Amino acid sequence: MSKINLSLPEVQIREIRINSITGYQGDAKELVEAREFGLKDKERSFSQCLGCATSKAACMTVLIQDAAVISHGPVGCASCLHEFAFTYRVNYPLRGIERPTPRRIFSTNLKEKDTVYGGNIKLANTIREVYERTHANAIFVLTTCAAGIIGDDVESVCNEAEEELGIPVVAIFCEGFRSKVWTTGFDAAYHGIARKLIQKPRRRRDDMINVINFWGSDVFYEWFAPFGAKPNYIIPFSTVNGLKYASEAAATVQACSTLGSYLGAVLEQDFGVPEIPAAPPYGIAQTDRWFRALGKILGKEEIAEKIIAEKKKEYLPKIEALREKLAGKTAYVTAGAAHGHALLDVLGELGIKAVGAAIFHHDPIYDSGREENDQLAQRVADYGNVFNYNVCNKQEFELVNALNRLRPDVLLARHGGMTLWGAKLGIPSLLIGDEHYSMGYEGLVNYGERILEVIENDEFVKNLEKHAINPYTKWWLEQPPYYFLKGGTGK
Ligand code: SF4
């Protein structure tokens, strides 16, 4: 039964909706198989800090061109949101935006007194003032723990402001304490956008395909052209108007199923836009399946076959040459769930042995309920098992311990700050900034070359290792990495 209910203001959290977990240690095959028999989360008796759902909701909403975002809470909860203003700037020019505009990020700055008397009036006044200052086409209000604890009626305040101002004012319930799985923040943002911005379709457009993504380079424009379609990138860099009719697209594809699981399912179930039944196109086998699934949904299978044949003719010899150069190399991956699986696909295809992975959470099944969208299952089937597979919500002490033991030839990290740990240990480390860069057949060449370059240019990290101070003690590095995970020996 679908867990999507747009009549409710709040999204159901991932732990409940799709049984996601944040603690696991074992191998990838066991984890995939656990889907069948019921997956159980493992608690940690010690934990370093985690991410917060608020920043994930901000990651989507702050980057909408003509919107403004208010964090309803203490100012500290908004202190990391400026990073998305940075993301916006460094990714310019992107998606045809001619002139970048300053991001509009505000906080209601709840104080101690507000937690006694309530923050509703402060929020109503802030929405008014933000509108006067920005004339945004939509205002998003992100809730925080403090606002949730004091029980502010954020939904009613937003609805009243919407009537008064005549623009969508969207309450997004993403308090950090609501979920251990911070990607619930993406779902919360999509839930609000689907409730208040996306309209029922007026017609179906064969020339538009939704791409749920972050801010990767524009590979889909060229891929969709033979099908007579253009990508509609959602959500970052879109506009309020552009989002309205995402409901009219011929299909939805995703760059990362962890990111787009909920929105893809909402677009299909509530607006009739089919989501393609295939995991994103990383690795040759998955890229073949992805183009075929897309061709089938568009009724243009012969075009998909033609693309596959032409691209393989061009890129397979290059991929084979890279495999020879990379033979015998090992790698470790740390990333969010589906993109981590995608990187494991890329490694498998390039013949690099993945000696382990620290993946930030695990969704046993996505909101579509389709097993074909399970990229980890595909990875295990296409390229074999991955041992030392750890699900850890960015517990860096576990990562450092595992890296120190496994000593791979290269570390691939999706999130800023994580490459530091590899570099300090003298391990060449690559930050994956553009999630589209390794997609498709050409992506394997892009990444193979990049990985080779990183491995060969290791002088800096080797020198850094000699001078770096590791904050973790010798005692910790001698313990098993999962010492504090339930079932481990730590208390
Ligand atoms: S919403 Fe909660 S978890 Fe997130 S930054 Fe604020 S206090 Fe921390």
UniProtKB/TrEMBL annotation:
The keyword Ribonucleoprotein appears for this protein: no
Keywords: Nitrogen fixation
InterPro entries listed in its UniProt record: Nase/OxRdtase_comp1 (IPR000510), Nase_comp1_CS (IPR000318), NifE-like (IPR049939)
Record domain Nitrogenase/oxidoreductase component: where: 52-455
Gene Ontology MF terms: nitrogenase activity
Keyword hit for Transcription: no
Pfam families linked to this entry: Oxidored_nitro
Top-level lineage group: Bacteria
Family: Belongs to the NifD/NifK/NifE/NifN family.
Protein name, UniProt field: Nitrogenase molybdenum-iron protein alpha chain
